Amino acid sequence: MPIIEIKKLTKIFGTDPKRAVPLLKDGWSKEKIFKETKLTVGVNQAEFSIETGQIFVIMGLSGSGKSTLVRLLNRLIEPTSGQVLFNGSDVLQMNAEQLRQFRRKNMGMVFQKFALFPHRTVVQNVEYGLEIQGMSKAKRREMAMQSLELVGLKGWEDSYPDQLSGGMQQRVGLARGLANDPDVLLMDEAFSALDPLIRKDMQDELIELQSKMKKTIVFITHDLDEALRIGDQIALMKDGSIVQIGSPEEILMQPANKYVERFVEDVDLSKILTASHVMRKPETITAERGPRVALQLMRDRGVSSLYVVDKDKGMKLIGVITAEDAAGAIKEGLPLDDIIQRELPSVSPDTLLNELFEIMGNTRLPVAVVDESGRLKGIIIKGAVLAALAGNTVPEAGVQLGHS
Amino acid sequence: MSANFGPFFDVIKFVIGMIVKGFDIVLRGTPDLLLLVILVALTWYIAKWRMGLFALIGLLLIHNLGYWSNAMQTLSLVLTAALLSIVIGVPLGILCARKNVVQNIVTPVLDFMQTMPAFVYLLPAISFFSLGIVPGVISSIIFAIPPTIRLTNLGIRQVPQELVEAADAFGSTPSQKLYKLQLPLAMPTIMAGINQTIMLSLSMVVIASMIGAQGVGTDVLRAVQQTRIGTGFEAGLVIVILAILLDRLTQTVMKKSKK
């Protein structure tokens, strides 16, 4: 079961907003509704589900309704209609006290402009969420310190927020959001106010933290690069509606419409796509076979080289043989083992394409993709890289192998 | 009205009378010089030594001119009015900040209270509470309470929306939000309101003396009526010294609350 699921979630601003709900159902546009009723559609019948442990990115330009949408999840903004299901129970049905408990225990939040309390020290900020639950001072201090240590701010606990840099302030915000140990962390443009370099560090740290703590994170951003970097799933919003939901690759490779296409056209794909996206299934042979078999295989498959693997060790890569060498070996009666080229270019599956260019320029052979235990995952030929950079969909086989 | 609400007004009269008397006993019951030393020490402690020195010279001057007893009576009236203004004004200001409806009702009432000439509500004050210090305190409160209400309201509304949102997002109850976030951040503004309230109630002492509130105001009033310029200036100077002391003290507290 998804941890968060929203159904037909709608927010309309203005007086008596409910009257516009049927109009949205009839497919009226945001502009038309505003023209006819003076009501502003914030979020239009949004639907998605988030699995536990995902980083779910909601991306859109300013005014697209993404910040409104994230506030509907914990009812900082009251939805007009629809459902927000948290572990299957409807958040919108909660009374004030249940909602408070839900916010205290289940959903932390990190804000764009940090929203730290200026009259409280760093540690007092972090423990705020615990303090209002009535936790004893010693206990909450201990938990707050753990949280601060997690974000690398140990030693700063007695400073005031205005004594810290922007990046450090947002670490405090992050620590405050994590201190309650919530199931879900909502992050509203959490890194947008930071310098690009610091932002990148924070993104890396967030990914690391998430892999450690397995939090479900709902991350709002207007920055496509950020979305692609950290998102497991990305929901793209425009005019209050969700235009497309998918993995970063799907958004890049199969944009749902012209809007998404325009959004992603400026992306430098070589910095986002990795070897695993463009590799395809290699033709392999085991070392026990003879050169004749190898040459026959190459003819059948229409390739000029074969990868030699050890099937007993789970496709462990041994080397490569070329058609030329195989023909030579047959003439001279050599075993296959003698003609294996053991030195060959190889990369790991998450090597970025822009790091691949140089390696590929120095070799005539396809580049082998091997995982950390030396198993052959796929090979990369030049054509596939160029096709991917041109925005074409990667051949199915390669994609499947990449995810296996 | 005085017939129907007679007991109610009696209760108010009794309570205010008791507070004034309490201050009066402390201020005038203590030997003059001992109190003087205590006040100077207190000023020295709260504000800087320069303010302490001013307090020493100023209070000695008041004592030397022979206005000590009357000055302390005036101080009782001012402190009572200020105390009650705070007790009534701060909660009312909080209420205004929370509910727009309350603000919309209270604001015109405050405008009315501030623009209506003070002499006008001396009359009903007399008819409800008869002559003496109590109607003086009441009219001082009416005149002086608006800044406390207004600035408490303003101070709370000025707390950045994103901070309030953060407090909500972590599941604060309304009172946790008030005590842990809004009041601490609004404190400098609220203190500015209280400072203004004290100053305004001090400016009411001469008018209050017209309905029998004893103190330095009476001296000023008598000097005006008898055109005794010298006495008028002396009594006026006493009010000025009290005003400066009270202003600087509350301002210092205000600045400290900002940190």
* Cα shape of chain B: globular
- In N-to-C order, the SSE pattern of chain B is HHHHHHHHHHHH
Question: Count the helices of chain A. How many?
Answer: 18
CATH level 1 name of the largest domain in chain A:
Alpha Beta
Taking the alpha carbons of the first and last residues of chain B, their distance comes to 49 Å
Are there runs of chain B of 5+ residues with pLDDT below 50, and where?
none
Strands ordered across the widest β-sheet of chain A: 6-7-8-3-9-10
* Strand segment count of chain A: 16
Number of helices, counting only DSSP H or I runs of 4 residues or more of chain B? 12
Most strands sheet of chain B: none
Helix content of chain A: 25-40%
Average predicted local confidence, pLDDT of chain A: 86
What Rg of chain A is obtained from the alpha carbons, in whole angstroms? 27 Å
Cα-based radius of gyration of chain B, to the nearest Å: 20 Å
Oligomer: heterodimer
How much of the residues of chain B is beta strand, in percent? Answer: under 5%
Enter the CATH topology name of the largest domain in chain A: Rossmann fold
- Round the mean pLDDT of chain B to the nearest integer and report it: 88
- In helices, the fraction of residues of chain B equals over 70%
Largest sheet of chain A: 6 strands, mixed
Describe this structure in words.
- Chain A: Residues 278-336, 340-396 form the CBS domain.
- Chain A: Residues 28-264 form the ABC transporter domain.
- Chain A folds into two domains: 4-106 and 182-267, Rossmann fold; 275-389, CBS-domain, CATH 3.10.580.10.
- Chain A has helices at 21-25, 30-37, 66-73, 96-105, 122-126, 128-131, 137-150, 166-179, 196-213, 224-230, 248-253, 258-264, 275-278, 291-301, 323-332, 353-361, 382-389, 396-403; strands at residues 4-13, 40-50, 55-59, 81-86, 89-90, 107-110, 184-188, 216-221, 233-238, 241-246, 284-286, 305-310, 316-322, 346-347, 367-370, 376-380.
- In chain A, helix 7 packs across helix 8.
- The two termini of chain A are 23 Å apart.
- Chain A is elongated and about 85 Å long.
- Chain A contains 18 helices and 16 strands.
- The longest helix of chain A has 18 residues, at 196-213.
- Chain B is built from twelve helices and no strands.
- The mean pLDDT of chain B is 88.
- By secondary structure, chain B is mainly α.
- Classes of the chains: A alpha/beta (404), B mainly alpha (259).
- The A-B interface holds A 74, 76, 99-104, 107-109, 111, 113, 115-119, 128-129, 131-133, 176, 180, 186 and B 160, 162-163, 165-173, 176, 180-181, 184-185.
